């Protein structure tokens, strides 16, 4: 018998999943009692966001299409002015982590209900974590206020996500599930979500790379993305996320790409400390060496595998090593200077993990 002792945080979101589910946005807005809605997007997704506004035609809607990466507070404040001008009673976020980040930053300040319509695999709609950029610094906070009330996962809206973005966004999502399996506060519920998520996403990505309009593969990827987001929102992350945070902050490296490069190396680093996790990953990835399998997956889908290709200077290895060792955090294997430096050297050069 296994004696189970754990804490599981259930976040109260209503999720609608499936092709064409965007058609339900009006009904969902009515359930929340919304009458004056602000629809949010990035500049490139402005036209698609207008289509969402049309679906909300019975209410007064305004669009704000200025969402950008890193959720800068200036952008949030500009959107907040619009929210106040129109006395908005709800937010609809149409897009990836950047747009959903803006919506969550607005919800933090106003407590307005949110409908999130994710169009990438970032999974931020499922987490109470918000990163904001203020005066050149990224500040991360946690609050249940930022969780959307409703999430609409419509596979049709992800078909236009370019193959390269699909690959890095998808592997970034896998990283959340992998670290959930060895999180300090891991639990059996999240273990199930993580394993199902990794199977779905790792199976879908090569199919999307071969045919970005493969509806079955897109469905699997979006389903996996949802579960990966739940993993990130439920338990604490470890070395992989610490490394990516340090690299992203110090060298302004792109978010999903950095996660894609680091994941196989971080897993290889921790492998000896978590044999049970490695055994489960062997099954779900159908591979003898899960870290190598993830490295090969990135290669197969044409994703970057070296930090050098992302623009990191070689001197950065020392700085990143210091950053990772400077503050304590939970990780199954103790971070140790020479090994971390070696890990970063291999990741810098695009070598397979050891
Ligand atoms: P993104 O939202 O910046 O989108 C990337 C680009 O793809 C944008 O130009 C966007 O317009 C475009 N795009 C999005 N969906 C598209 C589609 N279906 N078709 C065509 N183009 C599309 O990128 P992202 O990777 O989704 O999000 C990254 C951001 O999210 C980062 O700022 C990251 O820090 C944040 N994030 C936060 C959390 C969290 O829990 N707080 C989790 C993951 C990511």
Write structural notes for this entry.
The structure is a single chain. The model has no long low-confidence stretch (mean pLDDT 96). This protein is α/β, with parallel strands linked by helices and 354 residues long. The protein has two domains: 14-158, Rossmann fold (3-Layer(aba) Sandwich); 163-349, Dehydroquinate synthase-like - alpha domain (Dehydroquinate synthase-like, alpha domain), CATH 1.20.1090.10. The chain has 13 helices and eight strands. Strands 1-8-5-4-2-3 form a six-stranded parallel sheet, with helices on both faces. It has a two-stranded antiparallel sheet with strand order 6-7. Helix 9 runs antiparallel to helix 11 (290-300). The structure holds nicotinamide-adenine-dinucleotide. Residues 42, 44-45, 69-70, 95-99, 101, 119-120, 122-124, 127, 129-131, 157-158, 160-161, 165, 169, 232, 255-256 line the site of nicotinamide-adenine-dinucleotide (NAD).
Brief summary:
By secondary structure, the chain is α/β, with parallel strands linked by helices.
């Amino acid at each position: 018998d296994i004696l189970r002792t754990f804490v599981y945080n259930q976040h109260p979101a209503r999720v609608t999943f499936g092709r064409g589910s965007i058609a339900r946005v009006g009904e969902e807005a009515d359930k929340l009692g919304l009458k004056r809605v602000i629809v949010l997007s990035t500049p490139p997704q402005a036209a698609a966001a207008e289509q969402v506004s049309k679906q909300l035609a019975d209410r007064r809607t305004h669009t704000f299409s200025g969402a950008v990466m890193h959720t800068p507070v200036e952008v949030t404040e500009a959107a907040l002015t619009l929210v106040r001008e129109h006395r908005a009673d709800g937010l609809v976020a149409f897009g990836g982590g950047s747009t959903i980040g803006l919506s969550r930053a607005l919800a933090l300040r106003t407590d307005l209900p949110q409908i999130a319509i994710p169009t990438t695999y970032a999974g931020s709609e499922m987490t109470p974590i918000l990163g904001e950029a203020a005066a050149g610094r990224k500040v991360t906070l946690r609050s249940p206020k930022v969780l959307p009330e409703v999430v609409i996962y419509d596979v049709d809206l992800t078909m236009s996500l370019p193959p390269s973005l699909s690959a890095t966004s998808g592997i970034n999502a896998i990283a959340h599930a992998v670290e959930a399996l060895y999180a300090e506060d891991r639990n059996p519920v999240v273990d199930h979500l993580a394993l199902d998520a990794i199977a779905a996403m790792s199976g879908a990505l090569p199919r999307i790379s071969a045919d970005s309009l493969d509806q079955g593969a897109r469905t699997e990827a979006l389903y996996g993305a949802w579960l990966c987001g739940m993993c990130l929102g439920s338990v604490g992350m470890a070395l992989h996320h610490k490394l990516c945070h340090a690299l992203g902050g110090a060298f302004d490296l792109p978010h999903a790409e950095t996660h894609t490069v680091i994941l196989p190396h971080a897993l290889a680093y921790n492998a000896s400390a978590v044999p049970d996790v490695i055994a489960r990953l062997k099954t779900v990835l159908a591979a003898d060496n899960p870290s190598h399998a993830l490295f090969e997956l990135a290669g197969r889908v044409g994703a970057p595998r070296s930090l050098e290709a992302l623009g990191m200077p070689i001197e950065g290895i020392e700085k990143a090593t210091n950053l990772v060792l400077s503050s304590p955090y939970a990780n199954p294997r103790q971070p140790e200077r020479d090994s971390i430096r070696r890990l970063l050297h291999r990741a810098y050069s695009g070598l397979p993990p050891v």
